[in-house]
Amino acid sequence: MELSVEAGPARQGHANAPFWLTPAAYWMPAHFPTSAWWTHGAFAAWIVDAVRPSVVVELGTHFGYSCFAFAEAAKRLGLRTTINALDTWEGDHHAGFYGEEVFEYVDGVARSDYPESVRLVRGRFDESRSLFPDRSVDLLHIDGRHGYEDVLADFSEWRSAVRPGGVVLFHDIAEKGNGFGVWRLWDEVATHGRSFAFSHGHGLGVLSIGEPTTPSLRALFEADAATADRIRADFGRLGDVAARQAWLLTLPRELDQLRAEVQSRASHEEQQEVELDAQRKHIQAMTDSSSWRITAPLRAMARRCPRGRASSESGIPPVP
Name one GO cellular component term (predicted). Predict the structure, then answer.
């Protein structure tokens, strides 16, 4: 009987397990920073196990979830892999713009957990292309700007860097609104026997450059419709587990932020009450003063007399 996701980790590696449910597919990433890539963590470990890359290049890293997922899988597999994470760490109109704290977080995790495998390359993708010889990259992950012209430029410029039999991953192939155009490029490059598409997690396209070189990759790309549906369903469920784990890990931070916001609002309201009380005391002090009592008849007269008449009778010309 074939292994399903529901059977759980206890039966990982069973002789009758389908090729895509390897032990690596059940591994959890060690870091869960904010990411639209959360549900692809299981596949990240699987593809690293299948390709056994020496060189990984990632175009677009942001908080580093996918980079760290690749690095963690390589670490657990004992591979001598270098993950080159390329980004400006400034943001764009899709990811939003942000400050230096994002780069500092990614750099901190890379230095502490993956000092020998993760290399951060800061700058524009086209400026960094010359750092990588043709046919030197085993796994290329494209996740930068998501407009059609942008992703086309990235793929056109970096395709020659990937060795024959290497793999290119395209994130966001299922997004068709808000100016996203990765789906359009995917429709142009996806080829039967050399590509596979996931629809969950905003979509992830897997493309072989030339003929696949490992049995597991060939099986993935040549899967019939029924098998492909099972692969998508299983990685979708594994992705949901990772997303729930991420949510649980980020929940304390969200609760702390909520508490801080409530505390800030309470402090603001308390300050407003203090200021209001001070104003009340100031008014009370004025009304209790001798000068306020002495001038009471004058204020009463002013209220009874029209402004122009009172001024005229007093000999002072009325204000126009």
Answer: plasma membrane
